[in-house]
Amino acid sequence: MNAAKTPQTPTPTPAPTSAEPLPDAPSDAVDAITAQWAAVRPDLETVPMAVYGRIYRIARAMGERMDKEYAQFGIGRGEFDVIATLRRSGEPYTLSPRQLSATLMLTTGGMTGRLDKLEKAGLLRRSPDPTDRRGLRVSLTEKGLALVDESVTAGLAAQTEVLTSALNADEAAQLSALLRKLLAAH
Amino acid sequence: MNAAKTPQTPTPTPAPTSAEPLPDAPSDAVDAITAQWAAVRPDLETVPMAVYGRIYRIARAMGERMDKEYAQFGIGRGEFDVIATLRRSGEPYTLSPRQLSATLMLTTGGMTGRLDKLEKAGLLRRSPDPTDRRGLRVSLTEKGLALVDESVTAGLAAQTEVLTSALNADEAAQLSALLRKLLAAH
DNA sequence: GGGAAGTAGCTTACTCGTAAGCTACTTTTC
DNA sequence: GAAAAGTAGCTTACGAGTAAGCTACTTCCC
């Protein structure tokens, strides 16, 4: 009835590739998965599997946490990203839909939907671009500016809380540096 | 016309929190974002923002890469996850839909859709559970077993390629350990 | 200066997930 | 051993994204 074989011992040296569940570190769900793979397919590398497996899970877990934070302000993560992009672009908090969809790696169709929702909520305003009649300018309203300032603080507090509970300042800096190198390879 | 303000210099000490774009490290899109925030909201912590920003982007980039790998075998990432879970559970490569949806953190409705598609493709088979008439048993077919073995190898090769191009073995192990600690806090 | 090519934003059709509700069956409890 | 509660899997309604195609406008280029 167990959901899956639970590998009792994360076998000291199960894979061809070195150190996985270091002696002191407690084993987690990802260790269980790599151990299962090592049992049935010992030819597979477990380190990359573990790294990306954890990245994927952390991204998902923090994403859900962020959703909850932003829900307090009546917006979703997607909407937050839009108003946050406007906010950090500085005064007058104005960008075009195209700039927004490019920055957020979203199709224009998806952006139209987000802007509709935010405009209806009174957080931003669409106005014609005076220099190009094809285009629009999207600006944060007073209400939008106030809301984004509150919600970014709340969201960041959540991230900070989890990060500092897990890692000290040195480790966090080290992690950031390693992730920068990894991201550069993508 | 630029999509966003491009911060020329990642200012040596812009934020209250220490070392961000280390002297040698090239600055990336995430550095640009944190620099923008530091300019308009200098009270915000930039380290957590950078860590989670990079985690999110790496997860997304590798996700897209995986989609391409699996597309060669005619499946998507979601379908791959299902047959991979069956594969690593070991012989007889059989689990219930409930076990699968629990393991993959998916609703039962979502699992029904994935199973429909995989069954139609001949990669797995649904049969009644002999001990519980409410339940089903989902098993990999010969074809499914062969396909998952090929696709897991291809996917892992892609992950290994990117990881080893960015980090040496020590760094990768270090990253894995830091991520384990961070994941544990979620 | 006029036609070709490019760009901006919106709409439509489709995909794939969730949430909630359904039926069928099993387990618990008195 | 019958009623109540729980569990398994499917269906339906809905949400939010993509891809492709549309119209309107601008820019390029001869």
Automatic annotation (TrEMBL), chains A, B:
PROSITE patterns: HTH_MARR_2 (PS50995). Residues 1-27 are annotated as: Disordered. InterPro entries: HTH_MarR-typ, WH-like_DNA-bd_sf, WH_DNA-bd_sf. Keywords: DNA-binding, Transcription, Transcription regulation. Signal peptide: none annotated. Residues 48-184 form the HTH marR-type domain. Pfam families: MarR_2. This is MarR family transcriptional regulator.
